[in-house]
Amino acid sequence: MTTSFKGTKPSRRQFLSGAAAAGAGTFVAAQARAAGDPAITELQPWTQQLGDGVDVAPYGMPSEYESHVKRRTVEWLTADPISSINFTPLHELDGIITPNGLCFERHHGGAAHIDPAEHRLMINGLVETPLVFTMQDLMRFPRENHVYFLECAANSGMEWRGSQLNGCQFTHGMIHNVMYTGIPLRLLLQEAGVKTEGKWILPEGADAAAMTRSIPMEKALDDCLVAFKMNGEALRTEQGYPVRLVVPGWEGNMWVKWLRRIEVGDKPWHHREETSKYTDLLADGKARRFTWEMDAKSVITNPSPQAPLTHGKGPTVLTGMAWSGRGTIPRVDVTTDGGITWHQARISGPSLDKSMHRFYYEFDWDGGPLYLQSRAHDSTGYVQPTKDQLREFRGVNSIYHNNGIQTWYVNEEGIAENVEIS
Amino acid sequence: MSKSLKLYAGSALGAAIILTGAMNFADRNITQLPENAAVMGAAPESPDTMFIAAATASGAEAEGPFGLGREALPEEIAAWDIDIRPDGKGLPEGRGNVWDGEGVFVEQCAVCHGDFGEGVGRWPVLTGGFDTLTDQRPVKTTGSYWPYLSTVWDYVHRAMPFGNAQSLTDDEVYAITAYLLNMNGLVDGDFELSHENFSEVTLPNEDGFYMDDREELELPEFTRDPCMENCKESVEITMRAAVLDVTPDEAVQTMEESGEDHGTDMAAADDGAATEAEADTAEDAETPALDMALVDEGEKVFRKCKACHQVGDGASHRVGPQLNGVMGRELGAAEDFRYSSTMEEMGEEGIVWTEETMAEFLAKPRSYVKGTKMSFPGLRSDEEIAAVTEYLKSFSQ
Fold first, then answer.
1. Given an 8 Å threshold on Cβ–Cβ distance, is B208 in contact with A191?
2. Which fold, A297-419?
3. Interface confidence (ipTM) of the complex
4. What integer pLDDT is reported at residue A27 of this predicted model?
5. Does domain A112-163+176-288 have CATH number 3.90.420.10?
6. Does B81 sit within 8 Å of A263, measured CB to CB?
7. Which sign, positive or negative, has the C-alpha torsion B302, B308, B309, B310?
């Protein structure tokens, strides 16, 4: 265990039992006043001795003091760890870009390890000429770069019946936001020549789930990408190396990874992941299908249950993320009193279409209880609803598309908890 | 002469020089674009909007056709185009009845889904659940929720059994589908499903779905100016996550403390504790020295086995038995696993898993143990077999 304050990660139970290091900062400050801060007055080994040579880590990794910053899973959610999910540690990140190694994983048949030399992309069905591309072929098409969020339709799905998981990593961590480099899907379809009756596409993965989803041609020709790079480097294995589909603003399940085939057809296929799964069962026993767009949503990442307020009263930075599958986020409101009074947060960083946005709200914490919420407005005028507003329309059995307003209750010790409020 | 031209001056291919020169020029031209007021328009108000303008500028690339790729051959399309639609498009000729389906199901599916589709552990329940879709806990099965039979056929055919996808014959898929219909009370025990009668079968919940109507129903309601001040009188907590207390805790997620049976605990192994586990294994391996490089190699090969077999700390039976201690043990001897009768008999005859027997089995599982439940077709190379055997040995000492 390191003595560095940042590296000290008391467990959630410790926080909840009140044994948090809440006073640690104050303690260090007091000590410094008395005898001088040893971090300054004593010669540190890293100041005296030489550091690592250049090639110690040919592929660089985060500092050893950041080892707590990692994806985490919730074992009881799925039957096994292969067709499973883990979550992005949103509370440890800032800015708008998710580092590649922290992008949450969702596989249906495990993360396939594919030799790019053996990978092919086929386009068949209602096209003039069915085609096969090698990775080398794909690299010769014009490329574009775009930052998009990818959110699993089931993000926050465990919260329909009420507060369940204590941490924004678990309640909201099925999302990431990266810059993709890819080929407009339109160009590949044009290369094969879509016949006039071709109204849908069926992308298919090369993994052991052979994932398939039906996507309307209008979207395919609009902004979909066949991407091979994320944040400048090759896609990670778990994100579909060597090539994946990017379906901006639409639910993550449609972004088929390890993409090996695109079929053009005249009707949707109604495959497993668009009938049995990824359909939204409503209170009347009927289900919505083809709920592709991700509604506008936001969450405060700090403070949050995994990131309590440890500095005591005084100047405090509240921050979080907001996004919409229908456009940009021109405005985010936050409240510290459970929605009696709202304040406009400050958005900092690029405001890009169908990308995550970073917001901040700085305030003086008086040490009293806080009821924190954020509310996203998107460029279409849509305002993020409360969880109860959503339940009025959908009941509690939807699983998917829960974009309700999240509440964190922060007590006098700075400990935060996932709650719902009146 | 420019530096780039000097570089290419020695080239025998004049065309290449011209082409490269052109690309080089184009490249420079692109880097100059931001200075071009005509392209960028008026000076942007802030760096953020400049970013937007640059990022959303599209349609700049050539539209083709580029003449890239090659025509797909009919046999290639046939190999990959396996999808089935509700109208029967894509369905291959074939047939299978409930009786045969039960046999295949018990062999291939029951380990996860239960003999009657009731679901083992958290694996999907396939049967029943009728009239539960408005309940507190709806049971969504192929019978109660799935709209189309084609979805069942397509999914079983493309992704099942879990860990050995696309290994079932078309007739087996017809048979399993018929058995699922029978278990859901939708057909009699003497029913046979084929490409001929497929479209006659409808599932009860076919009309239980409709197109996304959020745009008409919800968006108007959620598109309005929200209250900013004095929005409510008071605030009470109505529900708290701490009551349920189901959040994974860092403190209890380490390998040391998950010593008790955590079942499928591969997540814990990912949690950085994997190195500890490996170290332990290396320490224990004092008896016949293991070739650690080969063990590492074998760990990679074992990925092919992982969907059905677990090995290491906390390993438990899945589709296949857990493999701790397998080397040196009789065939079919792991406790509480339902082996094929052949496998058990061979064990009773005293046949033991050695490098030789394992090699024979892994090369052609079904010919070494006739009737084995392991549907894996076998490993192609002797190197892979040697590596995975060495890997298994590391858990058998």
1. no
2. Immunoglobulin-like (2.60.40)
3. 0.91
4. 52
5. yes
6. yes
7. positive
